[in-house]
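User: Can you help me understand a structure? I only have the sequence.
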Amino acid sequence: MKQVMNQDGMSPGVILPGTSVYKVRAERNGREYVIYVFVPDIAPPPNGYPVIYLLDANAVFGTMVEAMRVQSVRSDKTGVVPAVIVGIGYEAKQPFPPERYYDFMMPVPEADLPRRPDGASWPEYGGAEAFMHFIEKQLKPEVEEKYSIDCSRQSIVGHSLGGLLVLQMLLANPGTFRHYIAGSPSIHWNSAWVEQQRASWVSRAENCGKQMHVLIAAGEQEGSHPSGVVGRSRELAHWLGQTGIEGFSAEFTCFEDEGHISVLPILMSRAIRFASRG
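Assistant: Let's start by predicting it. Here is the structure, written out as tokens:
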């Protein structure tokens, strides 16, 4: 890792090898995002690099990049192929800034939201459609213009509310990615919408004609959480896996002895391997 010094000689942090950072303002919602990009230190394949879009970059971009750098050196042993990683984050110091509630959630009646432990109101929410538009219509074309990308091998990874956003993208517009990785998805935040999408999803997924592979995962210790994240995740993965769509697969993984936050490192490691599949 390269250490970066300010003019006063103080070090604000480090830069991961192969990474760059820039800001983008979304056209539809006017919100500004910090985009973190990792590019492998090898020439791209003839069809371009696979690409992984990563939500909550403030929290997990470095974790995924280091896992990619280490494991892709021996693809024959790890099953991880070198890929571009595009992290979407915010200009904030916290790993999980409140802006994510707005970006990752569809509009939901306030009465349907879970009660906050301290009784306070939740941050502003309901902007997921605009955020999905930003990823699909603005960020992806920009990335494909700047870097050599294999557009047939695109993945998206999210955790918690980010995992919910991954599932919302899968259900709302199937085929925009090849691999969907949803860790500990907060399905209980929008369970009515998820159920509504099931009625027409199979025909829409078949009509898109794209290969899609879904991994839904959670930590074993989350099994006792009142949200029912493990049970809901397992059930949704089972339903998706039974649809019989050609070129589609879905699976559920429960990571032993991991909780909602401790699951993140192993989830990032599993995600890059899952995204390396054909």
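Now, to help you interpret it: The chain has eight helices and ten strands. The two ends are 31 Å apart (CA to CA). Let me know which part you'd like to focus on.
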